[in-house]
Amino acid sequence: MLSADGKKIISCSDDHTVRMWDVAMGQQIQIFKGHSDWVNVAVFSPDCQIVASGSVDGTIRLWDVKSGRELQKMEGHLNWIWDVNFSSDGKYIVSGSSDTTIRLWDINSGKEIQKMLGHSTVVLSVQFSPDGQMIVSSSTDKTIGLWSVKSGERLKEFNGHSSYVRRAQFSPDGKFIVSCSDDKTIRIWDVKSGKELKKLKGHSSGVNDVKYFSYSQTILSCSADRTVRLWDVKSGQKIQKLKGNARAVRCVDSCDADIIKLQFSYCFPLLLFSFTLFYIGYVKKRKKNFQVCRLHMCKYLYAKKKKRKTYCLKSILSKSSVQHNIVDINSLQTDFLIDNAIRTFSCCAIVSMLSIMFILLFLILI
């Protein structure tokens, strides 16, 4: 998960740890130890001062971001915990588990204050509505549930998916829900009526994660088909397909600065930069495709060329000492991409027009 300010990443692993990373430096800055089994999920609190994690060991743990100290251990679930999320005010946590229940927890006391029953199998995802009054859940029982935080009652059940529903998420305005499933579809639902509004098709395998961008007009998805896709909410059409992953893509996230457009003078093309967590995006220059990504915590620029040449530019896009390599994407070995690394786009931190122009001139001259 990416922090709200886009400066930190929190990751979890089967090594029983949760780790925090600095996006700009690409370095680990904190490690949280305490779980006794695989950690399935880790999220930041709204103020980024606390991290919550859920594990196969059946516990939810709260961690202090600065010290790495465990603040709270919440016990009650009878099986694996698949998802946890904070309320927008940071006072509560909701969790979903293989024990088929959804549970609501008080942050300060660590006590369970609500248990929601209704799903018949594993609860894979849970999220608070923006106003904190409702919770949306998704399950391997192929349904999406809408729940009252106050009463714990199920308000609505959304049916339509024909396989496991991996994720369900509210739109930023709370009026809609987007869901994704192993049935290869993404669906948009009206919260008030419970009706399915749109079905987005395009992925060739199960869709593992889906997210609304902050302005509600674009949806980001990832799939076992190894692609990340951007969709227009209004039309339901695919905007862009991001390729390059060697394995199934499990999750996606984004900061508020999702898309940046830089328009140069008439002799320079329009550059469209797409920045999201973990994955490779495209920068289009006339008929040539350039890919910008970060692999194994190092920054790389990849460009397709007829001849395989490698050039090295020292820190053109940032003030760090990291080098930027321009290489033929086809020259990369497959195993280079299968390294269990966290991948991010070089997230527009210190990109200037002069720097971009310099790179384009460099490429034209060679």
Specify the structural class: mainly beta
Describe the sheet with the most strands.
5 strands, mixed
**Range of helix content:** under 10%
Overall pLDDT level: 75
Inertia-based shape: globular
Unreliable segments (pLDDT under 50, ≥5 consecutive)? 257-354
Number of helices, where a helix is a run of at least 4 consecutive DSSP H or I residues: 2
CATH evolutionary superfamily of the largest domain: YVTN repeat-like/Quinoprotein amine dehydrogenase
Report the span from N to C terminus: 39 Å
Number of E-type strands: 30
**Overall CATH class of the largest domain:** Mainly Beta
| Integer count of domains | 2
What's the architecture of the largest domain in CATH terms? 7 Propeller
> Biggest sheet, strands in spatial order?
26-27-28-30-29
What does this structure look like?
Keywords: Membrane, Repeat, Transmembrane, Transmembrane helix, WD repeat. It comes from Reticulomyxa filosa. This is WD-40 repeat protein. There is one protein chain. With 366 residues, the protein is mainly β. The chain has two domains: 8-242, Methylamine Dehydrogenase, Chain H (7 Propeller), CATH 2.130.10; 259-365, no CATH class. 5% of the residues lie in helices and 46% in strands. It is built from two helices and 30 strands. The protein has helices spanning 334-337, 353-365; strands at 8-12, 17-22, 27-33, 39-44, 50-55, 59-64, 70-75, 81-86, 92-97, 102-106, 112-116, 123-128, 134-139, 144-148, 154-158, 165-170, 176-181, 185-190, 196-201, 207-212, 218-223, 228-232, 238-242, 259-262, 271-274, 281-285, 288-295, 298-303, 311-314, 323-327. It has a five-stranded mixed beta sheet with strand order 26-27-28-30-29, with no helix packed on it. Strand 18 and strand 19 form a beta hairpin. The two termini are 39 Å apart.
